[in-house]
């Protein structure tokens, strides 16, 4: 995260309209990218399901199940994911790569334990 803010500051040093648009575009892609990928994947899964299943009831049930599973997984893991993402981004920016994998695995194990 620290690396992202430093890059945005570099872009904004020019103080032109183009640099402002570039900085906003860069931050929008970084923040909305995972959300857009998730939505597109969900839309693709609905499309594929619609090709193989003729019953609208099954497609609606699938949508409800996926929505609830996504909501509960975000509630369950959201806080730890926020913290680990910030921590790992700072370690990568500091080029302390040896701290990345152990912390990532530890967070994954914590989330797995909480899930059961």
Task: Write up this protein.
- With 116 residues, the protein is mainly α.
- It folds into two domains: 52 residues, no CATH class; 63 residues, no CATH class.
- It is built from four helices and no strands.
- The mean pLDDT is 85.
Layout of helices and strands:
Elements: H1 2-12, H2 17-52, H3 56-93, H4 100-115
Looking at this protein, list some descriptive labels.
116 residues, single chain, 87% helix, 2 domains, mainly alpha
Number of domains: 2
How would a crystallographer describe the biggest sheet? none
Tell me the total number of β-strands.
0
**Which regions have little confidence, pLDDT < 50, spanning 5+ residues?**
none
**Can you give the helix content as a percent range?**
over 70%
- State Rg: 19 Å
Mean of the pLDDT scores? 85
Q: What's the helix count?
A: 4
Beta-sheet strand percentage?
Answer: under 5%
Order of helices and strands: HHHH
- Quick one: overall form? flat
How would you briefly describe this protein structure?
This protein has 116 residues and is mainly α. It has two domains: 52 residues, no CATH class; 63 residues, no CATH class.
């Amino acid at each position: 995260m620290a690396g992202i803010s430093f890059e945005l500051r570099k872009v904004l040093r020019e103080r032109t309209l183009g640099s402002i648009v570039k900085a906003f575009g860069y931050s929008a892609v970084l923040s909305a990218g995972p959300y857009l990928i998730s939505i597109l994947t969900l839309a693709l899964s609905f499309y594929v399901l619609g090709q193989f299943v003729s019953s609208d009831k099954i497609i609606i049930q699938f949508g409800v199940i996926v929505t609830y599973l996504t909501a509960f997984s975000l509630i369950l893991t959201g806080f730890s994911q926020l913290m680990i993402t910030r921590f790992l981004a700072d370690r990568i920016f500091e080029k302390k790569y040896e701290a990345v994998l152990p912390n990532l695995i530890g967070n994954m194990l914590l989330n797995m334990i909480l899930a059961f």
